[in-house]
């Protein structure tokens, strides 16, 4: 019975992919990450590869190093650095970019649910322009079983740099599948809406992440 419930959720997770896979703005993200807990600290390293234009071409590659520290029972502080290689569609080749993020997370457990709020200050470069953002994300996870955890989240972006306005949102539906004591896979769909800008964008993003706990 439990396995059938997992399959039912997975079917609903795949439905958006079937509906939007032919759109020109469909994107795919694949990643592998390694994480290690040391008392109140957690360190992680990830490599991600992204494709766009209906999965037809390489968009970005990046390496990211992140560290988190549990400040209090429900609060966590994090810092991350990303080295990014973004395709330059105008001149060809790739642009090398850097990004730094500072995070503050609050988590609340209610029975089998976990609710969280994350605020992030991000500074980096996108398309050779310096970009400073505040990103706020609301998430809800449910412990469906020992091996399966679905989640839903919404994130809103506020951009500084003389713009001082909200200009992007992301809604994500995903599922985390535990395949062994130290390995898991997270897969899902994200709808990205870029607004308050000259060129409006609506992106359908599909992703799969493989994680190993060291």
Explain what you see.
With 214 residues, this protein is mainly beta. It has one domain (2-213): monomeric porin ompg (Porin, Beta Barrel), CATH 2.40.160. Helix content is 9%, strand content 69%. The chain has one helix at residues 2-20; strands spanning 26-38, 41-52, 57-70, 75-87, 94-110, 113-126, 129-142, 148-159, 165-178, 183-194, 201-213. An 11-stranded mixed barrel has the order 1-2-3-4-5-6-7-8-9-10-11. Strand 6 and strand 7 (129-142) form a beta hairpin.
Name of the CATH first level: Mainly Beta
Envelope shape: globular
pLDDT averaged over residues: 89
Q: Kindly give the count of domains.
A: 1
Biggest sheet, open or closed, and with what strands and sense?
Answer: 11 strands, mixed, barrel
Task: Output the number of helix runs.
Answer: 1
Contiguous uncertain segments of 5+ residues:
17-24
CA-atom Rg in angstroms: 18 Å
CATH homologous superfamily?
A: monomeric porin ompg
In helices, the fraction of residues equals: under 10%
Alpha-carbon distance between the two ends: 32 Å
Number of strands: 11
The H/E string reads HEEEEEEEEEEE
Strand content: over 45%
CATH architecture: Beta Barrel
Predict the CATH topology.
Answer: Porin
Which structural class is indicated by helix and strand composition?
Answer: mainly beta
Strand order of the largest sheet: 1-2-3-4-5-6-7-8-9-10-11
Quick rundown:
This protein is mostly beta strands and 214 residues long. The chain has one helix at 2-20; strands at 26-38, 41-52, 57-70, 75-87, 94-110, 113-126, 129-142, 148-159, 165-178, 183-194, 201-213.
């Amino acid at each position: 019975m439990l396995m059938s419930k997992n399959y039912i959720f997975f079917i609903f997770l795949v439905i958006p992919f079937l509906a939007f896979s032919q759109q020109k703005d469909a994107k795919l993200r694949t990643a592998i990450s390694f994480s290690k807990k040391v008392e109140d600290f957690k360190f992680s390293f990830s490599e991600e590869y992204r494709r766009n234009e209906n999965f037809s071409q390489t968009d970005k590659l990046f390496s990211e190093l992140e560290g988190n520290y549990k400040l209090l029972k429900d609060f966590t502080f994090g810092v991350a650095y990303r080295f990014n290689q973004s395709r330059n569609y105008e001149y060809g080749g790739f642009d090398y970019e850097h990004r730094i993020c500072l995070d503050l997370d609050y988590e609340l457990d209610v029975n089998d649910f976990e609710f969280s709020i994350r605020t992030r200050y991000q500074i980096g470069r996108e398309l050779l322009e310096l970009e400073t953002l505040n990103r706020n994300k609301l998430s809800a996870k449910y412990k469906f079983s020992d091996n399966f955890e679905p989640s839903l989240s919404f994130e809103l972006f506020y951009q500084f740099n003389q713009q001082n306005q909200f200009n992007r949102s992301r809604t994500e539906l995903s599922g985390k599948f535990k395949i062994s004591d130290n390995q898991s896979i997270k897969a899902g769909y994200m709808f990205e809406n870029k607004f308050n800008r000259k060129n409006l964008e609506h992106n359908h993003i599909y992703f799969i992440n493989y994680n190993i706990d060291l």
